[in-house]
Specification:
This protein is α/β, with parallel strands linked by helices. Helix content is about 30%, strand content about 25%. α2 (about 95-110) links the parallel β4 (about 75-80) and β5.
Length: about 290
């Protein structure tokens, strides 16, 4: 049986709900996380009497321990399946995102959370929708859906990828949970900040998927044929040293632009660079859980 990578996520906020899970909840009940002491008269559950606290600070009242529940949350992967995501020197960027989807499905199932897939290119891709379920097999279904996806053909609709993303995420606006937004973000970012604000009740993890062939220019002095994956426009360039320097500078500038945009919304991006690393994603959540 093929091994599925697993990562662990602990989120920095509390969530409502009653279904048992592993995330910190707002509701009080028979959980393991101590919240406060309350009078037995107000919370008549003798099983939770704290004798020591009652003697020390009860002032004549019996005190009971109140705990907060650990709850399950909805988890969604919102995947960009536009033409540029089908590029890759060894593997398509979309196949790397599919590896993330498979690991996410297994990790969410182990945490007790439901997980589903939403996809977009220049429009909402209803044909790739996988509803959120608490199921062992949902991650595999999401991964197969992405791996079987083919690059879009035909005329470019008005509005670009952001319009498709906005329409796709309408069901998530104002809702809590965890949202992975996976894209190469090779499109204008105007208006993306406003959309991130609308998704703010959830914990949003931007996943920037780039291929090494995009970030590092060809090493040899040669005539290179380049093609824009989104528009199909082709150009021929003589790859000289000054052009390689400009290439690297443009990549660094774009990365800084994305880091600044997402950082200003409290959403540090996670970078996929040719492969998915489950341990790196676990470290990402550990570093940003405070």
């Amino acid at each position: 049986m093929e091994r599925i990578d697993e990562f662990h996520y602990q989120l920095p906020r509390r969530f409502g709900g009653w279904r048992p899970g592993s995330q910190r909840g707002l509701s009080q009940g028979s959980g393991q996380e101590f919240a406060a002491h309350r009078r037995l008269f107000d919370h008549p559950d003798p099983r939770r009497i704290d004798l020591r606290a009652s003697v020390r600070e009860g002032r004549g009242d019996w005190l009971v321990r109140i705990h907060r529940l650990r709850v399950a949350i909805p988890v969604h992967l919102v995947a960009d399946v536009s033409a540029s995501m089908h590029f890759g020197a060894d593997r398509r960027k979309l196949d790397v995102v599919a590896d993330l989807a498979e690991a996410l499905g297994y990790s969410a199932f182990r945490s007790g959370d439901s997980v589903g897939l939403l996809a977009f290119d220049l429009r909402e891709r209803d044909d790739l929708f996988v509803p959120a379920r608490h199921s062992r097999g949902n991650g595999g279904l999401m991964a197969r859906t992405l791996r079987d996806c083919r690059a879009p053909l035909g005329a470019v609709p008005q509005g670009g990828a952001l319009a498709g993303l906005r329409r796709t995420t309408e069901p998530l606006v104002g809702r809590g949970g965890l949202v992975f937004l996976a894209s190469d973000f090779h499109w204008p970012l105007d208006g993306l900040g406003e959309l991130l604000d609308q998704l703010a009740p959830a914990c949003v993890v931007p996943v920037v998927a780039w291929d090494p062939a995009e970030t590092e220019p060809p090493p040899a002095r040669a005539l290179v044929a380049l093609s824009d994956a989104e528009t199909g426009v082709r150009r021929s360039l003589w790859m000289r040293e000054s052009l390689r320097t400009r290439w690297r500078d443009a990549v660094a500038m774009r990365r800084a632009e994305l880091d600044a945009l997402f950082g200003s919304h409290g959403m540090p991006p996670f970078h996929l660079h040719g492969r998915f690393d489950a341990e790196a994603l676990t470290r990402y959540f550990m570093e940003n859980a405070a």
